Amino acid sequence: MSSNAPRRPVRDLRFFLTVPHACSYLPGKEATTLFLDPQESPVPGVYDSLSLLGFRRSGRHLYRPHCEGCDACRSVRIPIDGFSANRTQRKLRRLNADLSIRVVPARYEADHYALYADYIRLRHADGDMYPPSREQYRTFLTLEEPYAYLLEMRLDGKLVVVAAFDQLEHGLSAIYTFFSVDKALEKRSLGTYAILKLIELCGEKSLPHLYLGYWIEECRKMRYKRAFTPIEVLDGRHWRPLIC
Q: Which pTM does this prediction carry?
C-alpha cells in the first residue's frame, strides 16, 4: 500500500461487537469480536492504521478479539531486520529449493480450492471451517484489491502450498496458509517454509515486518510462531519483544 494513501482517523470509524460465541482456540471460553463497520471497506490507510492496532482481515472484514475479562489473543509480528533463520529453518530452505514459487492476485483458482478443501477435510475437520465449500473459500481468501495476494508453490508442476497475504505499507500480513497433506511431503514442513518465503519477500520489498496474526500461549496449534525469533507482541498500543 502506498504511504500516500488517504487516511481517516480511527476515532471517526464505526465499529461493532458480535454477540458472545464459543472461542475457536480455548475450550470452554466465550469470545467477542470487534469489527469495522462492513460499510467501511478495508481501503489503504484505514487498513494500515488498524493493523498496527492488532486488526486482521478475513474476506472484506477487519476485526480483532475484544473479549471481556480475557486478553489471551495477542497480535505478533516478526521484525525482518532482526530475523536470522535457525538451523532447522536453514535446512528447510535447502530441502525446498526445488519448489517453483509465484505470487498472484487473490483470485479464485480451481486447483487452489481443491488443495484448500483437502487441507480442511484432513487437517481441520474439527474446526470452524469444516466442511469446506467454494463459497466459503471465495468469501474468506479471494479479494479484488491491489494489496491482496496469494503465494503459490509447486513441485514438478503440482500445487503444494498456497499462502494468502496482504501487502501493507509497513509489512506483509499473513492471512492463511494451506498445503498438501501428502505424507511423502511431511519432512518439508511446508507451512513453516511458507513463512520463511514471506519473510524473504518482506526483505525484497524493504518492508520491516511480517504480521503473523494472533498468538495464544495456551494454544498448542500456535506454538510454531515462537520458532521465528525475534518476535514482537502488541501490548496495548505498543509492540514489544515477546518473552515467554
A: 0.92
